[in-house]
Design goal:
Chain A: This is C-type cytochrome biogenesis protein CcsB. The complex is a heterodimer of chains A (361) and B (667). With 361 residues, chain A is mainly alpha-helical. Chain A has ten helices and one strand. The N terminus and C terminus of chain A are likely disordered. Classes of the chains: A mainly alpha (361), B alpha+beta (667). The structure holds protoporphyrin IX containing FE. Protoporphyrin IX containing FE sits at the interface of chains B and A.
Chain lengths: 361, 667
């Protein structure tokens, strides 16, 4: 790191402009998503209700089909078709069609929203990079920088999932809304002029520890969104299965979400996949603390809350493997765990006096 | 699921055999044939699939009351095939847990207690308690983290503090209750790992369980008919699976294979690594020592207890454990951004030292903030720095009574510093009485200039140093036994020097200037030399290497445990009633498997190239395919529920994954 390099004022200015521009574009994406949801509301799908009521609760996909023989020839390499079966005990409900429902116009707006999100993401990423260049270091020296990087990464993860052909567009509205909230807080309350790091932060561990922490946070966030939606969708499905009629909002909005089982699975996968990285993040932090302060673990508030978050996610993973704790109970634990993460990020920096309190919050 | 499941025919033999759908052919390949079967038999599906923890699982659909004593036998068979896909401990049902212990006296109770302690449920509760228990420590100041803050807190909250004290809330992480939680957790952990390891070893020695009778009940299933002979297919399957590094063997009419044992290894390794980390952490706490020392440029430090300004150690630490070494601070260098908006931001802090180990030859080293000096397991960290102006005090006769670099404490980022020059002895007032002198000092490395605001530094570097001094004489009260802060002046027994006009003597000095005390009482000179000082933290903590090893092992284990999928694959090849070979393949993984169907499809495709699909008779195509031998013609079937029309099933998307075993729960 070139520490002697002077802060480049114009780059810092440019970064601010880019961040504000990205907020404008995100706002447009947000509006487009709203239109998508509204238009999608026109199409009445009702697949969930149909699936849950037609054959009684929990009709299973018939373990029917196998491969049909190829006509005539024996040499035809017809790929055998694999039949999968639903988890026993889970409702066998198809995923909702997504925000746009079956409405073509809604879908168009959804695509527009995604395009705008891509644009906003690029602009925001540009802002983060400009900020990094202006201070000639990793842009993670204070909470403002942390926040803008965080939302960039969260959107990046989301776009990555889209790119991997995962059907996660339904998450778009909530995500963009959160990103706007995050950027709003960052620019209004957390803003700090671009600044150099105190020598204690000069370490390549900054790159390792903080980048993984940000990434973990972004992924945990996506897991938490999926978990919350799972809870809503699950009670919606339960209501339908009991033969009750959910409210109009639930019928319109929740109907379009993926099934509770899919949401649950997504939440688990996301959380489980990032848990080893979170473990690594804490260990990297401990190593860094050991180098900077002479002790690798000192029960500093930030360390404590990282530990709590870690234990909470471990409890979540255990809950999933424990009879009687799967499903909703495990989901509550996942939300508590994410709450711990949030508190570690905002709460500890703001309310608790910690060695980790960065300059200018 | 309003199944009317009647076990006709051969109870116990094949109670939930295929629905015959009235065709009576036993043929099963066709699409429509078995429609609805899944509905009826769902609850038993893959009994024990997940593992043994199945007992007590709630079946959310709840409706199915699949009865019949006969089902149990089939369940048992399936259970054997599908169990032990992990080594997670058997879960007690909630009922058992609540109904209290056995009536077997002490040993029975102990055993019951042990079973509870090592259950997943209690592990979960303990994990919860552990995170809950660490919260107060992050909100209430802690003794071992910041003693000063604890004092301040106690002074401010005099009512609640004694209560906190009783609850050990100022020492959460060493408190009895916190220790109890993690010790219980780790006893539970050990009690969990040991039996799981044995179980795993047993699993490794045994062969993968034989194929269950009903492969189509597995979470992923595929079947086709081929002209190849069953033995050929089985042999090909065996070769294929072994090539894909499955543990595979032929058992009866099927090949059983299993892969992904590393998952269990990873899981055990992770939990074991947790123990290693705890041991390392505990030994580190017990044997550690940590102390601080302020050293002015040119001065030295030897690693003995008396030389420390402050010192702390773990309860098992002994003074002999201090590594013998010494060092001298040759030079401290601090550089700062000279201009621009970042003016004054520190750029480098480094201390050049000469050190020697146990009286050995002197070596040079540089200590930086993130780069401690390591001597034989002891680490020397650079913590703080500041200035130590050199002052000379002369008595009325002009004799030097004091000449030293006086370390002053920084009070802001620009190193505005305060402190006291204390002349303890050697000074005699002009009336011949021995007296002590105290000069409260205020130092700025860069003075803004006269009339420019207050006497605060505007830059941390030494650009325009000014030393402001007051002057007192009398008794410094350092001999009174009370520990005294060297940076503060106790003026209770001292009088300020006053000039002729009765004003208190006070003066700002530039390097080289002198303040003369009134009435020929002597003088104090701010020499042209301003030294820097640095504080060092010397720590010794054994077990760091062990902790790191544990940490790396934990991550490796975790990755294995979370990303490796343990799964079983069965391939059954039998001759159908029409003489054509029927190949059936099924896969079973843990519940969270996503890739299982893909892998099975992959394997099936490979096998299919070796045993391609046979041309099907047109009739079978339309009506129902050939049945597998195991289920054909048993005559005992689950009638499709009237509530589930045959047309419903094909429309339902293939979805989700492995069945969780609500074994017993629904019966
Ligand atoms: C410090 C305490 C503990 C931590 C941080 C911890 C953490 C974890 C984590 C993160 C997993 C997830 C890996 C996976 O899903 O495969 C896991 C799995 C597991 N843990 Fe623990 N654990 C702890 C204590 C225990 C104890 C005391 C037991 C014994 C009762 C236990 C038994 C298990 C078992 C059986 C699994 C595997 C579950 C499965 O196969 O699905 N753990 N643990």
């Amino acid at each position: 790191m070139n520490l002697a390099a002077a802060t480049n004022e114009s780059l810092a200015q440019g970064s601010n402009v880019l961040i504000y521009s990205s907020m404008a574009v995100y706002t447009l994406a947000f509006l487009a998503h709203i239109v998508e949801w509204v238009l999608g509301g026109r199409s009445k799908v009702g697949r969930t209700a149909a699936a849950l009521t037609s054959a009684g609760a929990g009709a299973t996909a018939g373990p029917a089909v196998s491969v049909r023989s190829a006509q005539g020839g024996t040499a035809v390499l017809d790929k055998p078709k694999v039949v999968t079966r639903a988890t026993a005990g889970a409702r066998d409900v198809p995923d909702g069609p997504g925000a746009a429902g079956d409405d073509a116009q809604g879908d168009l707006y959804g695509r527009i929203a995604v395009s705008l999100t891509v644009l906003a993401f690029l602009v925001e990423a540009g802002g983060v990079v400009a900020r990094a260049l202006s201070v000639q270091r990793a842009p993670w020296g204070n909470m403002y920088e942390f926040s803008i990087t965080f939302s960039t990464v969260a959107v990046g993860v989301y776009l990555g999932l889209l790119l991997a052909k995962k059907r996660v567009r339904w998450i778009g509205l909530l995500l963009v809304a959160t990103v706007l909230l995050d950027l709003g807080i960052a620019t209004t309350w957390l803003y700090t002029d671009s600044d150099q790091l105190v020598p204690a932060l000069h370490s390549y561990w900054l790159w390792i520890h903080v980048s993984t922490a940000i990434f973990c946070g972004a992924v945990f966030y996506i897991g938490a969104v999926a978990t919350v939606l799972y809870l809503f969708r699950d009670s919606y499905e339960a209501k339908l299965a009991r033969g009750e009629r959910p409210g109009a909002f639930a019928r319109s909005v929740l109907e379009r979400l993926p099934s509770a089982a899919s949401l649950d699975k997504l939440a688990y996968r996301v959380n489980a996949a990032v848990f080893p990285l979170w473990t690594f993040t804490i260990i990297a932090g401990a190593i860094w603390a050991g180098e900077a302060w002479g002790r690798y673990w000192g029960w500093d508030a930030k360390e404590v809350w990282s530990f709590i978050t870690w234990v909470a996610y471990a409890a979540y993973l255990h809950a999933r493997a424990t009879a009687g704790w799967k499903g909703r109970k495990a989901a509550y634990i996942a939300l508590i765990a994410f709450g711990c993460w949030l508190f570690n990020y905002y709460g500890v920096n703001i309310f608790v006096n910690s060695k980790h309190s960065y300059a200018g919050v | 699921m309003s199944t009317t499941d009647t076990s006709r025919g051969h109870p116990g033999a094949e109670p939930d055999g295929p629905p015959q759908d009235g065709t009576g052919t036993g043929a099963r390949t066709g699409t429509g044939a078995r429609t609805g079967a899944g509905t009826g038999t769902k609850d038993e599906t893959g009994a024990g699939t997940k593992d043994e923890t199945g007992a007590g699982t709630k079946d959310e659909t709840g409706a199915g009351t699949e009865a019949g004593a006969g089902t149990e036998a089939a369940d048992a068979a399936e259970h054997a095939a599908t169990s032990q896909l992990s080594t997670a401990p058997q879960e007690e049902s909630a009922r058992e847990l609540l109904s209290g212990g056995p009536s077997l006296g002490v040993i029975g109770w102990a055993r019951w207690f042990w079973r509870q302690l090592t259950s997943m449920r209690v592990a979960l509760i303990l994990l919860f308690l552990l995170s809950l228990g660490s919260i107060p420590g992050s909100l209430i100041p802690q003794n071992n983290v910041d003693d000063l803050k604890v004092r301040a807190f106690q002074q401010k909250h005099d009512v609640i503090s004694p209560v906190y004290e009783k609850l050990q809330l100022f020492d959460v992480y060493t408190s009895v209750w916190f220790s109890a939680i993690y010790i219980l957790l780790f006893v539970s952990l050990i009690g969990c790992i040991v039996p799981r390891t044995w179980q795993f070893v047993r699993q490794l020695r045994a062969r993968p369980p034989a194929a269950p009778r009903r492969l189509d009940r597995m979470p992923a299933h595929t079947t086709w008919r081929t002209d190849a002979a069953p033995e050929e297919v089985r042999e090909a399957a065996l070769r294929l699976l072994r090539k894909r590094r499955f543990r595979a063997h032929a058992a009866g009419d099927a090949v059983a294979a299993e892969k992904g044992y590393l998952r269990e290894v990873g899981n055990l390794l992770f939990h074991l690594a947790l123990i290693v980390m705890l041991v390392a952490f505990a030994s580190g706490q017990l044997f550690k020592s940590e102390g601080g020392k302020l050293v002015v440029e040119g001065d030295g430090f030897a690693n003995t207890i008396t030389q420390y300004d402050d010192f702390r150690s773990g309860s098992l630490f002994s003074m002999d454990d201090l590594v013998p070494f010494d060092f001298t601070l040759d030079q401290f260098t601090g550089t700062y951004e000279p201009s621009g908006p970042q003016r004054g931001t520190p750029r480098t802090f480094e201390a050049d030292v000469s050190y020697s180990e146990g009286g050995g030859p002197a070596k040079k080293a540089k200590i930086k903030v993130n780069e401690p000096l390591e001597v034989d397991g002891s680490k020397v960290f650079l913590n703080m720095h500041g200035y130590a102006p050199v002052v000379t005090v002369r008595d009325g006769k002009g004799q030097v009574v004091y000449q030293e670099a006086v370390p002053l404490l920084p009070i802001d980022g620009n190193i505005t510093s305060t402190g006291v020059v204390k002349v303890l002895d050697g000074y005699t007032g002009k009336d011949g009485k021995k007296e002590q002198l105290g000069f409260p000092a205020f130092f700025v490395p860069t003075y803004a200039g006269k009339g420019k605001g207050q006497m605060f530094s505007t830059f941390p570097g030494l650009a325009f140093p000014v030393l402001n001094l007051g002057a007192y004489h009398g008794d410094l009260r350092v001999d009174g036994g009370m520990p005294q802060n060297v940076y503060q002046l106790d003026t209770s027994k001292m009088k300020p020097f006053k000039d002729a006009g009765g004003n208190i003597v006070k003066k700002s000095l530039r390097p080289g200037e002198t303040m003369t005390l009134p009435d020929g009482a002597g003088s104090i000179t701010f020499e042209k030399d301003v030294k820097e000082w640095a504080t060092f933290q010397i720590t010794q903590q054994p077990g760091n290497g062990l902790a790191l090893t544990g940490a790396i092992a934990a991550i490796a284990g975790l990755v294995g445990s979370l990303f490796i999928q343990r799964r079983r694959v069965w391939v059954r090849a039998t001759e159908g009633p029409d003489g054509v070979t029927v190949v059936e393949m099924a896969g079973l993984g843990r519940s969270e498997s996503a890739r299982l169907p893909e892998e099975l499809g992959d394997l099936a495709q490979s096998l299919h190239t070796l045993a391609p699909t046979a041309p099907a008779p047109a009739a079978a195509e339309a009506d129902s395919g050939a049945g597998t031998h195991s289920t054909s013609g048993t005559g005992s079937g689950t009638r499709p529920s009237p509530a589930s029309p045959p047309s419903q099933s094909p429309a339902a998307p293939p979805s989700h994954e492995s069945p969780r075993p609500p074994r017993g729960a629904a019966q």
